[in-house]
TrEMBL record:
Annotated GO CC locations: nucleus; proteasome regulatory particle, base subcomplex; proteasome storage granule
Pfam family, one: RPN1_RPN2_N
Domain of life of the source: Eukaryota
Quaternary data: Component of the 19S proteasome regulatory particle complex. The 26S proteasome consists of a 20S core particle (CP) and two 19S regulatory subunits (RP).
Sequence similarity: Belongs to the proteasome subunit S2 family.
InterPro entries reported for this sequence: 26S_Psome_Rpn1 (IPR016643), ARM-like (IPR011989), ARM-type_fold (IPR016024), RPN1_C (IPR041433), RPN1_N (IPR040892)
Residue ranges constituting the RPN1 N-terminal domain according to the UniProt record: 27-327
Ranges of residues in domain 26S proteasome non-ATPase regulatory subunit RPN1 C-terminal: 829-881
Function: Component of the 26S proteasome, a multiprotein complex involved in the ATP-dependent degradation of ubiquitinated proteins. This complex plays a key role in the maintenance of protein homeostasis by removing misfolded or damaged proteins, which could impair cellular functions, and by removing proteins whose functions are no longer required. Therefore, the proteasome participates in numerous cellular processes, including cell cycle progression, apoptosis, or DNA damage repair.
Protein name: 26S proteasome non-ATPase regulatory subunit 2
Membrane-spanning intervals of the chain: none
């Protein structure tokens, strides 16, 4: 019993330990000397006290003992400070008071006293970092409070801020330095303290911070980041920032400052993937190679090499995709139903054939001897899309594709000729040839009196020259907009004009569209579903340009509802697509719950009523405005993972409680947030919607499944689509959509993607996003457009089709195979040390197919990468000083 001790006894023993008693006595003696009047003793005592506090060591979870024991004397120190005549002693005392003010006793009276900062500024201002990280953090918080309160930064305070930033940058607290300078709007101080060892970590953090501030502040931050990358010769990373800023001057500067041939080619690959226009100077090394890269002339040859490596050159027939033999046997009458509605199913097979064999140049329906026969198995407008599928087969192959397509241009059937014109545009999509074959072949039909031929050539030009903003192309398309007499011709011309001038705010295109719309303000044409496409074409001019839409939005105020709300929402959707802008999302959420109020209808006369019986009158569904808003939610929120997740939850409520027209947009918005990303939760959600009693909701959900699984060959999705084919066997429209989705899911035999995001999701391709929006907006009224005679709008997806590859080349642009580790991307922003960037690692040899959210890194030290991330086409440089060792 005598050996047992209570916890209180142990604590009392600790409290009265000899070491602590000695320290308390020493501190008390020093305090007494400081409070006396002999200045020699005061100065010496202050120096000793300062030494004791600075050299005290303790655990990170407890207060240093000198501070704990000196806390009761805080007010006495302040009183002594006021009475000290010696300025040097006064400064030493101020330093100690500043440190002691961090304690709980000192701050008990006034939380806003800011004594720590106040006395620090009155102190010596020397070696403030010696007081420790916690003191620096306390100072930072009070500096932010002070600047918020006074909106001023005096020279003394600015010097203190620089000392703090210098300390943070020296001792691995760069993130704190960035936060402090962003809070007080003094980020321009930072570059002078950035060196080679920390610039990468700082730039990565600032780049991510730019997503959560207003546009002006974001531009300022990103410009600083780009300047640092240029300073340290990280030209590839600087180019990504410059493209995000849409800063042509900075892009030109990067290309001029970069003198390494391999890096220049890598810059060209990044710009070419984004379709960003670059002017190459004559003195640039390897100019011919760089121009070819920028024109995407390499795409087809590299894709053919990939297909050869993966051994997938053998063409696939639609039946190989449908796999009807796997459908449940008791319900096999689906085959009978396909024969009954053969025209529609043949049309679906044409699309499936085009998507599945896209870029391969071979198929089993069109490129053989029976190509003509297959086209004639389609009826009327179906022949247009069947012929246009040739464009997908020869995608990016301008030299090899023109000859087999051109022969159909001499057909006597206008639908086949129009399909050929469209195919010629698709072949040239994203590829620029010096001979301009698309312009030479299509220009003659732009003003053709036959509307079918005109539409084929106009849309073909839009697809062939998307994102170029070429004046010679626009000089053909703008008159086509102004001369249009039907809603369909006008909408196709607007789409083409918007595609060519995408994201440029081209005044001629936007004014010609707006002028025509205003002229038709009282016209019945304005109520046609095709006008959705016309307004979308107007929106393309302002794609990603945010506030630049103020002028056209004001012009649209002259229109009556619901067209006014529809048009303004489409403009906002295009301008903010992929930005994740919180304010626009909030505005869209508010609009989702507000129904558009329609003006009171004018009473009709008996004569008008009798006419209406003979001819159905076109009218907008007021809920279409809300449906466009829902689709806009998906387009804007796709730029941010958190926003995207929140959007999915909101869309769930809209899908349960919204009006029928609004519910039709929900699957499309969900698909926009998961393009070529077949998450199980998304597939399950869309599969539920695909059984909806509303056939339009079901059709849109089925198509959304195709977009979500585009180019992935996802087995679970393929099984769901086969079940849907059986379930909708007697519904021609739904079955048509199922076949389309099956074609999209196996697009490029599983080697392609529709996702507009690339370069590790750092860049969004507005041309690809535009191609995605065309069919999705058209599906807001599916039976009027995609399921009607305008199914050829689906070929706008050609602008979004890209291989989902990782292809490695040497500096001479020859393919090389290297081992790489592939895994799920991990966010490492702001993390200490050198954390792993990928998880769930698998080692492969390039070329490699990358799934959504996957990231790759080199597995050996044999090569050095010239690209910022291993994604797309990457150039590797042989290391001269490293052995081939595992990283």
């Amino acid at each position: 019993m005598a050996l047992t001790t209570t916890r209180a006894e142990v604590t009392s023993k600790i409290e009265v330990s000899e070491e602590d008693k000695e320290l308390q006595d020493e501190l008390k003696t020093l305090v007494n000397k400081i409070l006396c009047t002999d200045m020699k003793l005061v100065t010496a005592a202050l120096e000793m006290l300062k030494f004791l506090i600075r050299t005290s060591t303790t655990s990170m979870t407890s207060v240093p003992k000198p501070l704990k024991y000196l806390a009761p004397y805080y007010l006495q120190f302040k009183n002594a400070y006021e009475k000290m005549p010696d300025p040097n002693a006064k400064k030493l005392c101020a330093d100690i008071i500043s440190v002691l003010s961090m304690g709980p006793i000192s701050n008990a009276g006034d939380q806003e006293s800011m004594d720590c900062l106040k006395f620090c500024l009155q102190g010596t201002l020397k070696s403030i970092g010696d007081w420790g990280h916690e003191y620096i953090r306390h100072l930072e918080s009070e500096i932010v409070q002070y600047v918020y309160k006074t909106s001023t930064i005096e020279p003394t305070l600015e010097k203190l801020i620089k000392d703090i930033v210098k300390f943070n940058c020296k001792f691995h607290a760069e993130i704190q330095a960035c936060d402090l300078l962003m809070e007080i709007d003094k980020l321009e101080i930072l570059p002078s303290f950035i060196d080679k060892s920390i610039y990468s970590r700082i730039c990565l953090y600032l780049q991510c911070c730019a997503k959560y501030v207003d546009d002006l502040e974001a531009d300022k931050i990103l410009k600083l980041v780009a300047e640092q990358y240029i300073r340290f010769k990280e030209y590839s990373k600087a180019l990504i920032i410059a493209i995000n800023l849409n800063n042509d001057k900075m892009v030109d500067e990067i290309f001029k400052k970069c003198i390494d041939s391999g890096t220049l080619k890598q810059l060209a690959f990044i710009a070419a993937r984004q379709l960003y226009p670059i002017e190459v100077d004559d003195e640039v090394p390897d100019k011919e190679d760089i121009v070819n890269i920028l024109n995407n002339n390499h795409l087809n040859s590299h894709f053919q090499n990939l297909a050869r490596e993966l051994d997938i050159l053998e063409p696939k027939a639609p039946e190989d995709v449908y796999k009807t033999w796997l459908e449940p046997t008791p319900l096999r009458p689906s085959v009978l139903s396909e024969n009954v509605d053969s025209a529609r199913q043949n049309l679906a097979a044409s699309f499936v054939n085009g998507f599945v064999n896209a870029g391969f140049g071979k198929d089993k329906l069109l490129t053989g001897d029976d190509g003509n026969r297959w086209i004639y198995r389609n009826k009327d407008h179906g022949m247009l899309s069947a012929t246009a599928a040739l464009g997908l087969l020869y995608l990016w192959d301008v030299d090899g594709g023109l000859t087999p397509i051109d022969k159909y241009l001499y057909s006597k059937d206008d639908q086949i000729k129009a399909g050929t014109l469209l195919a010629l545009g698709i072949v040239n999509c994203r590829v620029h040839n010096e001979c301009d074959p698309a312009l030479a072949l299509l220009a003659d039909f732009v003003h053709d009196p036959n509307n079918v031929l005109r539409n084929g050539s106009v849309l073909g030009l839009g697809l062939a020259y998307i994102g170029t903003n070429r004046s010679d192309i626009l000089s053909l398309l703008i008159p086509a907009i102004e001369e249009a007499t039907t809603a369909e011709c006008f909408s196709i011309a607007c789409l083409a004009g918007g595609m060519v001038s995408i994201g440029t705010c081209n005044g001629e295109v936007s004014q010609s569209i707006l002028a025509k719309l205003v002229d038709w303000r009282e016209n019945e044409i304005l109520k046609s579903p095709h006008l959705l496409m016309a307004v979308l074409g107007l929106g393309f001019c302002f794609m990603g340009r945010k506030d630049s839409i103020d002028a056209p939005v004001e012009t649209l105020e002259v229109f009556s509802e619901p067209f006014c709300s529809i048009a303004k929402t489409i403009l906002h959707t295009c301008a903010y697509a992929g930005t994740g802008d919180v304010f626009i999302i909030q505005e869209f959420l508010n609009n989702c719950g507000e129904k558009v109020t329609m003006p009171e209808p004018v009473p009709e006369t008996k004569a008008e009523k009798s006419k209406d019986k003979k001819k159905a009158k076109l009218e907008w569904d007021p809920a279409i405005a809300q449906a466009v808003t829902v689709l806009g939610l998906g387009a804007v929120s796709m730029g941010d993972e958190v926003g995207s997740e929140m959007c999915q939850r909101v869309l769930g409520s809209v899908g349960r409680y919204g009006d029928p027209a609004v519910r039709r947009a929900v699957p499309l918005a969900v698909a926009l947030n998961s393009v070529s990303k077949p998450d199980l939760s998304v597939i399950d959600l869309l599969t539920k919607y695909s059984h909806d009693p509303d056939d339009k909701v079901a059709c849109n959900s089925i198509f959304a499944l195709g977009v979500v699984g585009a180019g992935t060959n996802n087995a679970r999705l393929a099984a769901s689509l086969r079940q849907l084919a059986v379930y909708h066997a007697k519904n021609p429209s739904e079955l048509f959509m199922v076949r389309l989705s099956q074609g999209l899911a196996h697009m490029g035999k599983g080697t392609m993607t529709l996702s507009p995001w690339h370069t590790d999701r750092q860049l969004i391709d507005h041309c690809a996003l535009a191609g995605l929006l065309v069919p999705l907006v058209a599906l807001l009224d599916p039976h009027a457009l995609i399921l009607g005679r305008s199914h050829y709008l689906l070929y706008a997806l050609a602008t979004a089709i890209q291989p989902r590859w990782l292809l490695t080349l040497d500096e001479n642009l020859q393919p090389i195979s290297v081992p790489v580790r592939v895994g799920q991307a991990v966010d490492i922003v702001g993390k200490a040390g050198t954390p792993k960037t990928i998880a769930g690692i698998h080692t492969h040899t390039t070329p490699v197919l990358l799934g959504s959210g996957e990231r790759a890194e080199l597995a050996t030290n044999q090569y050095e990468q010239l690209s910022p991330v291993l994604d797309g086409i990457c150039i590797l440089k042989k290391r001269s000083d490293e052995t081939d060792s595992i990283v």
